Amino acid sequence: MPTVEPGAPGPLTALSPVRLEFAQKAFIEAGGNLLLVRKSADDPFHPGRWEVPGGRLEVEADLDLDDHIRREVWEEVGLKVDPGPPFHLWQWFMPERDPRMRGGQVRVVATARSCRPVTLDASLDNQEAGDHLAEYAWVPLEEVESRELIPSLRPVVRAFLARSG
Fold first, then answer.
1. CATH number at residue 88
2. 100-130 confidence digits (pLDDT tens)
3. Which pTM does this prediction carry?
4. Closest CA to 160 of 135, 139, 132, 131
């Protein structure tokens, strides 16, 4: 194998940069219903599709993983939750939006967690502009799979329903 001088372009320089991020999704069940949120029409990736509350870790802001999921749920749907254990791990790729990483990708590694609601009065009032949420709904468990879900979330929902039923 040929050697490469330090700082010189090597065989991997042609590859697009990949940045790693971590996310958590909250599966909040109450009275046989699962809390879903629907993306707004202006969401850049999944307009109008349904998912569960959650988001990416803010390394500087989140004290630990429980704090992270509590913050995400509070921001997106205004609920307080008691985070439970993770039950599913998956990943997806997104185009990099940082112009300094032109042509790159973001690899998001995510975990799904069952969360017990401490409060039940959901609201979208706390969401940030980047959340792109149009509405929320408490959906009966038997109807969840019939919603137009974000594709990468479908196997996670099936795993959740298999545990619940």
1. 3.90.79.10
2. 777 789 999 999 999 999 999 999 999 988 8
3. 0.86
4. 139
Could you tell me how many residues make up the chain?
A: 165
Give the list of residues 6+ apart from residue 104 with CB closer than 8 angstroms, or none: 16, 17, 18, 19, 95, 96, 98
Kindly state whether residue 12 falls inside one of the protein's structural domains: no
The answer as to whether 6 is a domain residue is no
| Domain assignment present for 8 | no
Where are any strands of DSSP class E within 52-127?
Answer: 54-56, 81-95, 105-117
Strand partners, 34: 29, 139
DSSP-H helix ranges across the chain: 65-77, 154-164
Q: Is 146 domain-assigned?
A: yes
- Strand-pairing partners, residue 47, are none
| The residue to which tokens 């307080």 are assigned | 80
Domain hosting 105: range is 18-164
pLDDT in tens, 65-92: 999 999 999 999 999 999 999 999 999 9
Number of domains in the chain: 1
Distances (CA, A) of 65 to 115, 131, 152: 13, 19, 22
For the chain, the first-to-last Cα distance in angstroms comes to 55
